[in-house]
Specification:
single chain; mainly alpha; globular
């Protein structure tokens, strides 16, 4: 059956380790695996459930293999190392030594669609076009996104793997009904490697209880399958009404589970978009999501989200953005705030 959400980022392992929605590949070139969040780091010290993992595989890819929750990406451009690598792929772009001064203080205006398309096309030259087959496991995506809060990929993935080993039979999906019925201490212990486990364990059970309390499927009170065909606004409002769930988490569930036209705006997308003045400076996250949806060409939600996120991680860093090496420098009204002297 369809496999759900975990993200992997090791560009060297075999495609069998990734196992879901979208991978980066280069035409006829063998698939290259990518990832969706931060560096996974090295496996934890023994004892741990990852001891039987092939050497060189990322933790995220391991979770894809062992928990049935993989997400990879596909890059249309040959030579790409896949989404999320810290080393940018080879590019024909050469840094521009001198940049014209910008006017970062001018009044913000909604960017024209032509400018958004130019930014999309420039990012496409750098990172390719991600393609995704929706994995169809919204509850896994929801819990995974909760686990990702305030931690990195490695810790999040280990936490999800431990949840699966605690609440799923071998080869079966997680039994969320059992997770809801279990003592909160059991959930807390399972997700401890993901950080702030006391808060997250309570939140996970609160989310499951809220879903069960207003079940749409009498045969499966925890099913979210109805979202596949429901109006987007209805599904988004339902998710945002769950305890601790906001627009970003809701967008992750809708986009990655069912390919619905919503765009997650995380801290990287927010930072890059604000510096490019795609967003109104100081706008709250609710407004950022509305603006992102308004400016994103229909059908390009995944591409713009993934490539803005990649650019934020590789180049447009929070404190010291690499403006002198940025392929978007000439399009960026904020470059004078960060670029060095000519």
């Amino acid at each position: 059956g369809a496999k759900p959400p975990l993200r992997s980022r090791n560009g060297s392992q075999s495609s069998e380790l990734v196992g879901t929605p979208c991978r980066y590949s280069a035409g006829a070139v063998a698939p290259l695996d990518g990832a969706l969040r931060q560096n996974t780091g090295s496996p934890p010290s023994a004892p741990n459930p990852l001891s039987r993992v092939p050497s060189g595989a990322s933790i995220s890819a391991v979770c894809s293999l062992m928990s049935g929750t993989g997400r990879g990406y596909r890059d249309a451009r040959a030579g790409s190392r896949g989404y999320g690598d810290t080393v940018p792929p080879t590019s024909t772009h050469r840094p521009t030594p001198a940049l014209a001064p910008a006017r970062p203080g001018r009044e913000w205006k909604r960017p024209p669609h032509a400018r958004v398309r130019r930014i999309r096309d420039r990012l496409r030259e750098l990172y390719g076009i991600p393609r995704m087959a929706p994995h169809g496991r919204p509850l896994d995506e929801l819990i995974l996104t909760v686990l990702s809060q305030s931690t990195n990929d490695r810790n999040r993935d280990v936490a999800f793997l431990r949840l699966r080993e605690r609440f799923a039979a071998p080869g079966e999906p997680i039994d969320y009904a059992a997770m809801l019925a279990a003592p909160v201490s059991d959930v807390e212990e399972a997700i401890r490697p993901g950080g702030i486990s006391k808060v997250k364990s309570v939140r996970i059970q609160a989310i499951l209880a809220a879903i069960a309390a207003c079940a749409r499927d009498p045969d499966d009170p925890l099913s979210l399958e109805w979202m596949r065909d429901a109006p987007l606004s209805e599904s988004r409002a339902y998710l945002c009404a769950l305890p601790g769930v906001g627009r970003k988490t809701a967008a992750c569930v809708l986009l990655f589970s069912y390919g619905l036209p919503d765009v997650p705006v995380d801290t990287h997308v927010s930072r890059v978009g604000t510096r490019l003045r795609l967003f109104r400076p100081g706008a709250p996250f609710e407004e950022l999501h509305d603006q992102m949806l308004a400016l994103t060409p229909r059908g390009h939600e995944l591409e713009l989200h993934v490539n803005l996120l990649r650019h934020g991680r590789r180049t447009c860093h929070a404190r010291n953005p690499s403006c002198d090496e940025c392929a978007l420098a000439r399009m960026c009204p904020s470059r004078a705030l960060f670029a060095g002297p000519a």
